[in-house]
């Protein structure tokens, strides 16, 4: 199936490409056969566009960190709901499914159409909504009755800071007791993208990323709404080899050194107070 995407939607293919590269390895950290199938099914010049998949482990660790947070939520709320904002072609549902979770994908309509065409999305526990994450009407489709987790992996950096703040404050007001997990790029990296993105050595140019996340921004998030109970960093997942197995997790835990994006992106969990 031929896939042509531009701008922010195209970034989902970068993530998928690298995740699948890791999943293909015999010593893979991430069991994700659907990601591998997707890359094999999609007619897109991954190699020419993005170059060799050198970020496989990095991307897998990013996904594993979100998986750990979703699994922890499902351990507490086995019948709970996950709302995945800007899910792209993430295959997380199939990695973490406990048999009872209900899953809502909120994506741009063209990506919802792509997910429907490429993934088995018709189960009773899976729903897709073609709607911007910035349009609060998606909130009418989220069911908080048995526990609710909102996720935004690789999404919020593409929004303006004011948009991120409004979205989080609206979720805090609307979903007492829920949690929101997210990641971002460090603010210094965000600033570097503002002049039209960053060009990789392969010639691919990222979109601008106007929102940055660091400890100071986490304190700003904490103040966005009286229902925000706390904001904590998600612990990094441990990888293979000296760098991702020992050094990167250590750097990520070290204030002042944790904002080096090659060790992994800052990620956090915002908990909303119960009603
Ligand atoms: C870097 S990709 C991340 C995809 C996926 N979460 C992952 O980690 O592989 C960014 C995604 O954000 C989606 N996106 C961009 N703007 C959006 C919006 N306003 N509402 C919902 N999704 C959006 C894009 O379509 C794309 O799938």
How would you characterize this protein structure?
- The protein is of the alpha/beta class and 275 residues long.
- The chain has one domain: 3-Layer(aba) Sandwich (Rossmann fold).
- The chain has a 7-stranded mixed beta sheet, sandwiched between helices.
- β4, α7 and β5 form a beta-alpha-beta unit.
- The termini are far apart.
- Bound molecules: S-adenosylmethionine.
- The site of S-adenosylmethionine has 21 residues, from α1 and β2.
What's the short story on this structure?
The chain is of the alpha/beta class and 275 residues long. The chain is built from ten helices and seven strands. It has a seven-stranded mixed beta sheet, sandwiched between helices.
Hetero groups: S-adenosylmethionine
The level 1 CATH classification is Alpha Beta
Rounded to the nearest angstrom, the distance between the terminal CA atoms is 47 Å
- What is the CATH T-level topology? Rossmann fold
Q: Specify the number of helices.
A: 10
Secondary-structure-derived class: alpha/beta
What's the total count of β strands? Answer: 7
CATH superfamily placement: Vaccinia Virus protein VP39
Overall geometry comes to globular
Q: Return residue spans where pLDDT drops below 50 for at least 5 consecutive residues.
A: none
Widest β-sheet, arrangement of strands: 3-2-1-4-5-7-6
Count up the domains.
Answer: 1
Strand content: 5-15%
Cα-atom Rg, whole angstroms?
Answer: 18 Å
Largest sheet: 7 strands, mixed
Mean pLDDT: 95
H-E order: HHHHEHEHEEHEHHEHE
CATH architecture: 3-Layer(aba) Sandwich
Helical fraction equals: 25-40%
